[in-house]
Amino acid sequence: MKVRRLNKILLYDDGAARALNIEEIAEYLGKKLAKVGVEVRGNPFALYPLQDKISEYAGKIASIKIPDATKRMSSWQEPLYSEIEYEKRRILGKTTAFGVLYDGLELQRLFFELIPREERSLEFVHIFFNNRLFATWDDHDRRYHARVSLCGIPSIISTTGVVEAPAKPREYYLLKQQYEMLGKDLLELKDRFKGGFIDYEDERLMEVVKGYAMQAVFYSLVGDPFCQDKGCRLYNAHWQEELVFAQLESKYEFCQRHASFLEEMNGH
Amino acid sequence: MGIEKIEVKEDKTIKEFIDELNLSSVPILLELDGEIFYPDENYDRKIQAGDRLAVIPIIAGG
């Protein structure tokens, strides 16, 4: 593996702090990469506290919403005043409402603008934790797919994506349809699958996100965030079952190859 | 997949570089001399023979 020298890992919080303890993630990354500094930056929009800047970014975010996951957006819509106000409240942490899907690549581009110019370099690992659900377009089946993460500059990790993007067991969706038709309580259904997938306010979310943060680090280190080993935290899980196994249940944290790599990085 | 450095063989624009590599519909960033940028915001920018551009793919997870 060709390894890139890292200067620093920088962690940002765009509304994810309620679900995550970002200081704890920083501590974890600091232990795994003892020779690389880790800094918690907090809300990326706080760098631009002026009201007009907040309005500008709120407008941009409001314009990259995906109204229909089966139709590729070619141009971005002019947002309504109320949509901009909603995004302003989200930026300022005054609402945590969900149910909106954003274009992940455009969201990442917007976050790229928030990174100081002198830090737009492969030597810095910028990770934006956020609670927005984002998606990317797939030409194969011609629809948007929700994602947990997008590795790039910056890398973005969505706590909502952890819950919504990897698929739940097929049986869950079949039963969910039945429950909805019969007007039954979905909490009862979730109880039947308890522990099988990550849910909102799940105490395991923190641990899961640490693995995704490591994927972002490996992306910057070697250009590839993923591992084929289903028990390695770098495994790219498409099912909740796979995610739970890779991040929480596997007997080892990293496969032998990636564990050795980290040991070498740390000079052991 | 992976970040790849490519040496430019002759003077051209970023747009020409991207088109030659069939990367116009692929989500990527470029790096030149330590500066990272989106190609579509720099299509007219000139690059010279001998420049080494890093092509940085954006990779989705989950």
Give your account of this protein's structure.
The complex is a heterodimer of chains A (268) and B (62). By secondary structure, chain A is α/β, with parallel strands linked by helices. Chain A has one domain (8-265): Collagenase (Catalytic Domain) (3-Layer(aba) Sandwich). Chain A contains 10 helices and 8 strands. Chain A has helices at residues 22-32, 51-63, 81-91, 104-114, 159-164, 170-182, 186-192, 205-222, 240-249, 256-265; strands at 8-14, 37-42, 101-103, 124-130, 133-138, 143-147, 149-151, 155-158. In chain A, the strands form 2 sheets. Chain A has a 5-stranded mixed sheet, with helices on both faces. In chain A, helix 8 packs across helix 9 (240-249). The radius of gyration of chain A is 19 Å and the shape is globular. The relative contact order of chain A is 0.14. Chain B is mainly β and 62 residues long. Chain B has one domain (4-57): Ubiquitin-like (UB roll). Chain B is built from 1 helix and 7 strands; from the N terminus they run E-E-H-E-E-E-E-E. Chain B has one helix spanning 14-20; strands at residues 4-7, 12-13, 28-32, 35-37, 46-47, 52-57, 59-61. Chain B has a 4-stranded antiparallel sheet, with no helix packed on it. In chain B, strand 3 and strand 4 (35-37) form a beta hairpin. The longest helix of chain B is centred in the first third of the chain and has 7 residues, at 14-20. The mean pLDDT of chain B is 94. The interface between A and B is medium-sized, with 35 and 20 residues. Strand 7 of chain A pairs antiparallel with strand 7 of chain B.
